[in-house]
Design a protein that fits this description.
The protein is 39% helix and 17% strand. It has 410 residues and is α/β, with parallel strands linked by helices. The longest helix is centred in the last third of the chain and has 21 residues, at 329-349. It is globular, with a radius of gyration of 21 Å.
Amino acid sequence: YGNGGFIHTGRGIMRNVLCRRWVGFLGLGFAFSLALGSPAFGQQLIKLGFIPAITGPASSLGIPERDTALMLQAEIDAKGGIKGRAVKLVIYDGESTETKTLLAAKKAMEEDKVAAVLCCSQSGTSLAIKNTVQTAKVPMVSMAASVKIVEPVKDSFWVFKTPQSDHLIAEVLVDYLVGKKIARVAWMNVDNAFGDSGRLEFDWLAKKAGIAIVANERFGDKDVDMTTQLTKVKGSDAQALVVWAIPPAASVVTKNAGELGLSIPLFHSHGVGNKRFIDLAGPAANGVRFPAGKLLKAEDLPDTDAQKKTLVAYAKAYEAKYGAGSRSTFGGHGWDAIWLTYKAIEAAAARTNPDDLPSFRAAIRDELEKIKEFVGISGIFKMSVTDHNGLDKRAVTMYEIVNGQWQLAK
């Protein structure tokens, strides 16, 4: 994938600089995933297409998802396979674009014959391939936020997702604003599917709660200065500013707000739930509050919290491999996508022959919909025929950044 180049073989994952094997796909620089089998050459595989945004504007999401997948492949291998078949992740870089992601998804489904597609890092790319997987009748598990990815369910029969939906995040944020007696807010969102979906969800919930949006601004995900929009915000009577974006744009807004001397509280979405946001925003990140999953401060959860054991175990394993403080809620979305799908594959393989790929894919879809009380990183999943996300308010908590570190908000 991308510029790094990993090759999947029966003996694991090797960097292309070592194995000297590189195959281009349509000039996009995808690394080809060699289905050689494991442990013996020629053994049948169950393959999963894993397509995060490793490069491009959404790389702060896709890199921890990719890193989580690489870490989990060893754990999957250690399980010894499902019904004598190794389970392998076929990783491609969606490059943060709808076109590249769609091409990768088609290649995974049509050439690699994957049993399921785990994609994508972004709402826009997830929505861009939704109709394609629906038509192909391949189960898809998205790692993106927009509620539109799985709703309405009648149009999302083959599609599931792991992050907390923007509706759920907006609901928790609005509750917090009401508790702080904030009745007027300014709004800024990135000009893409993630930002626009967040805007719709927040607007509806804010009006319902009696919160007025007194300024409304947008910006591009590659913009390097949002001072013009922030100046309009500063001239309004807003009591707080809510920003819906991901790094680097989310960090630029935050830095610009500090430079402009904006004195009102700054709130973000769960799109800033990684260290990359703090690193890019610098001291301006201090004081920012945002709702997100529980991973960032997992160790501070009470022992009675049903997620704590799973969260702490993942955080320790991830940081042991990738460095202290490297945990990311986005890596957690990848963890959930992989293990939810693995669980569904186990159940599907018990009643369906994996060699009959159409039937096997349909069985995986059915088993994903049956998952109940699965303790994940993003929350406790309870899927159903009417809910292909399966999370509730228990999956979200409020954070504040203090001295460059996440803290549970008061």
